[in-house]
Amino acid sequence: MTALRPRHLLLAFATAPLALGLAACKKDAETAAPAGSPIAKIAAPTGQKWEDVVSATASGGMLMGNPQATIKLVEYGSLSCPHCARFAQEAMAPLKTEFVSSGRVSYEYRSFAIHPQDIPLTVLVRCAPKESFFPLLEQVYGNFDAMQTPLEDPAVQKAAQAASNLPPAQRYPALSDALKYTDFFAARGVSVDQAHACLANIQTATEVANHAKAYGDAGINQTPTLVLNGFQLPPEQSEWPKIAEALRAAGSR
Fold this sequence. Notes:
The protein has 253 residues and is an alpha+beta fold. It has a single domain, classed as Glutaredoxin (3-Layer(aba) Sandwich). The chain has helices at residues 6-10, 82-99, 118-125, 133-142, 144-148, 154-163, 168-178, 181-186, 192-199, 202-217, 240-249; strands at residues 54-56, 62-64, 71-77, 105-111, 225-228, 231-232. The protein has a six-stranded mixed β-sheet with strand order 1-2-4-3-5-6, sandwiched between helices. α6 runs antiparallel to α7 (168-178). The protein starts with 5 loop residues before the first helix and ends with a helix.
């Protein structure tokens, strides 16, 4: 008997339909990424660095840096997306040190749950205090291959399948245990009890799924998708060197 592929297995866990918008984004071909004059650096609040200032947004994201920054970079990313992982591995350090730290650029990450395992992962990176969100995000992406390995293990698949038969509040804690996420986050400061409590909150999981639906309905159809000051950058410009160039052109120089 052919083993179920992990994606098919995990579809049973969706708490709300992820009606992702698959139509091509409608952007005028002649539209260019925003450009602007050089912007002076903006000092962070006393005793703080901008890269340590984190806030939740009304769009379901987490924002790093100066909330009033003139240049706003938004990423729609999936925590199960290898391209997003590679982008994070290349971009996060220079994004923080060169751009966010200047106060001229803010960076918002919106978790786009395109696979059901994105839901417990999103809940877990948001389970700790908000200041831990981006460090945990970096840990997930930095250990991406190791975190994906259990998905191919028949024993893990069996445990995940068993979790799908549990009552709703028990499903995501059991899935997280099966996929080794609980242990991964416990080693990074989110205790097992804390993780289970966060994952048992069905309202939180549903919010993650509903935000994903809203992103899809708005025309986001791939991960990562980068938006700079409201302009959705085309796929060929979503590599870090191109993003850095666009940030400088927008005034962070």
